[in-house]
Amino acid sequence: MTTPTRNRLAALLLVFGAAWLGAAPAQAEDIDPAVAEIQHRWEVIQYQTAKEERRAGFETLAEKASALAAAKADRPDALIWEGIVLSSLAGEKQGLDKLSALGLIKRARDRYETAIRIDAGALNGSALNSLAVLYAKAPGWPLSFGDKTKAEENFLAALQRNPNGIDPNYFYAEFLMEQGKAALAMEHLERALKAPPRPGRQIADEGRRKEVMALLEKAKAKVK
Q1: Which residue in 20, 55, 144, 163 is a FRET match for 86, CA 20 to 30 A apart?
Q2: Count of CB atoms within 10 A of residue 100's CB?
Q3: Other CB atoms closer than 10 Å to residue 63's CB: what's the count?
Q4: What are the tens digits of pLDDT across the range 57-91?
Q5: What percent of the chain has pLDDT over 90?
Q6: Nearest to residue 29, comparing CAs of 198, 211, 179?
Q7: pTM listed for this prediction
């Protein structure tokens, strides 16, 4: 790989890694107990673990999530959460490890697509939302599969299934901000702040609300 290509990849993946890639499910309804354990551990790592310790935490969790998804290949919730953990681990990769991050996000994409084929509405359309985030954040061709058009299509499909959810509104707002549409982003961020609490998801709700409020301040500054 030439130096310019490596530098371009590093720059793209720096943006990719800076934003959390695992768009967590809106609710814990109809979730397998073993998957719920993965979900809870992800929340602790993402929101309550020191940054320098998150990579190791996600590496361990990725092994468990992949083993669980292999054992429960017909359950979209297991596939979704494997994808989320893999995406989160990709976001923690640094230096030349960013090359391996591309492999992780491709695996995550495959898991989300499989979950969608089984049941696109599982966990309130979370696979659609998570897939949209990957398309929005991944480098484009020839480095990877990033595609803004596919990102928006999947964001809108996720919002159709969960119009008032905190996650789909937050991540779509983030996408809109990157497209220079701060006013529309504000509408979705305000909707995200009104999202109902998710049973058993207090850690995730608190962490996501902080992210929503931070992005809302940026959006307000853009529309002044």
Answers
A1: 163
A2: 11
A3: 11
A4: 999 999 999 999 999 999 999 999 999 999 999 99
A5: 80
A6: 198
A7: 0.87
